[in-house]
Amino acid sequence: MAEMNKDHNRVVWMDIPVADLARASAFYEQVLGLPVHQEAVGEVAFAVLDHGQGNGACLIVQPDRVGSLGPLVYLNVNGRIRAAEAAVTAQGGRVEQAIHAIGPHGYRALIIDSEGNRLALHSETDQ
């Protein structure tokens, strides 16, 4: 996460579900007019939309989430992910997946907010 994102932005990342990674990569590369880089962490293949110092996004193969479940928005809770995760249930939401590492990209927790929206909390550390 770029310093600008950590210090100034609430939304820091998005996972965009796709059925066909190559097709989706070509689509976003042409529509947005920027490079899309295919990568993998372990068995998970994905493609990162070039973002430099801006907010980022990646295409991730999740055919069952294409359409109505849509993109996963990552909210910035840098340096306080444990407190943020605890606040989820205290405020009427629920934790779908507890804090876990996401390779070299920090940590996230998947949550359902008080209104039923699926979101990710993101931090560079697991604190």
UniProtKB/TrEMBL annotation:
InterPro entries, sorted: Anthracycline_SecMetBiosynth, Glyas_Bleomycin-R_OHBP_Dase, Glyoxy/Ble-like_N, VOC_core
Record's protein name: Glyoxalase
Organism: Simiduia agarivorans (strain DSM 21679 / JCM 13881 / BCRC 17597 / SA1)
Domain called VOC: residue spans: 10-124
Lineage of source species: Bacteria, Pseudomonadati, Pseudomonadota, Gammaproteobacteria, Cellvibrionales
A Pfam family reported for this protein in Swiss-Prot or TrEMBL: Ble-like_N
